Design the sequence.
């Protein structure tokens, strides 16, 4: 069972983790949904983008960042993150962002081990759809 982030993961995997970090920081800085569209909203998004990129740089330079994503290509992560942040379909207020979870399922009746199945991971985002239902988004 894999229980910790493997810092020996390749550059692409670590770059993806860096993108997720920036996206989460960007969403955490989200303004209320009732803001009007236009120049003010665009400027605020630019500020959020700069803050998220700065937070990613600070994390990457930290002891935790150096142990988790030492080989991340930050220039590529920035490019991918900025593409996400400028796509207005992502200008939503997620219910959850980068949310860790764990749950256990009982063993199947015919499982010879009798061991339960432990599911653990991180949800990228949970968003509400047009009908108000929560949906997992990757």
Sequence:
């Amino acid at each position: 069972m894999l229980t910790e982030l493997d810092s020996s993961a390749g550059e692409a995997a670590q770059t993806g983790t860096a993108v997720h970090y920036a996206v989460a920081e960007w969403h955490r800085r989200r303004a209320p949904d009732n803001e009007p569209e236009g120049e003010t909203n665009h400027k605020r998004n630019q500020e959020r983008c700069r803050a998220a990129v700065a937070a990613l740089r600070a994390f990457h330079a930290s002891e935790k960042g150096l142990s988790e994503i030492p080989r991340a290509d930050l220039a590529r992560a920035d490019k991918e993150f900025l593409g996400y942040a400028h796509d207005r379909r992502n200008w939503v207020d997620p219910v959850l962002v980068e949310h860790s979870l764990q749950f256990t399922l009982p063993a199947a009746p015919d499982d010879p081990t009798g061991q339960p199945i432990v599911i653990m991971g991180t949800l990228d985002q949970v968003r509400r759809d047009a009908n108000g239902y929560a949906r997992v988004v990757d």
The helical segments are 11-28, 39-61, 63-68, 74-85. The mean pLDDT is 88. Residues 39-61 form the longest helix (23 residues).
